[in-house]
Amino acid sequence: MDVLDRADLPFPQSLPEFQRLFPDDAACAAYLEKARWRDGFVCPHCGTTGEPFHFENRPGVLRCRKCRKNTGLTVGTVMERSHTPLNVWFWAAYLVTSQTPGMSAVQFQRQLGLSRYETAFQILHKLRSGMVRPNQDRIGGQPKNHVEVDETWVGGRTRGEGRGVHHKVLVSCAIEVRHRKPGTKLDNRKNGRYGRTRSARRRVRP
Fold it and tell me: Whole-model pTM?
């Protein structure tokens, strides 16, 4: 679902606006509930429509007033089974979509105030994976757009294993070079060129 296609879902255009829209976990949960059920909550267990029970200490859980079964707001999303607060997830999504050109996991950890690097890395990885189109089409095949391909070894020096570089991984990358329409705002940026990329780790037999 694209929130930009939903007029009933406000999308923050600035940092102050984001802070006003999502001050706490309860506000984030209300946004998720509205995004999932535009016309009101429908219990996935019994199909009952109506206002569910809300829990102050568990904003990400709704309980049907009829069958009394719980429904998780994050089920089926990148946030499922995560112990990280909703507010942190929303901040993370805002940073990923508004910062160009991207940011490292270390920067991500510092910006969100997370104590563990592993948590920052996992959140960043899940958000990036969720931004990939589900039916990713192949690049190339268009006469006016050529494809540039290259490969490189990724890895670094290791300690305790002698001299040289060990455990390198061969990564291949292909970029379909496209050209923007003349007269657009970004036409003069990088000679109007932009592209779509695909990368993959190659298996190397010993």
Answer: 0.66
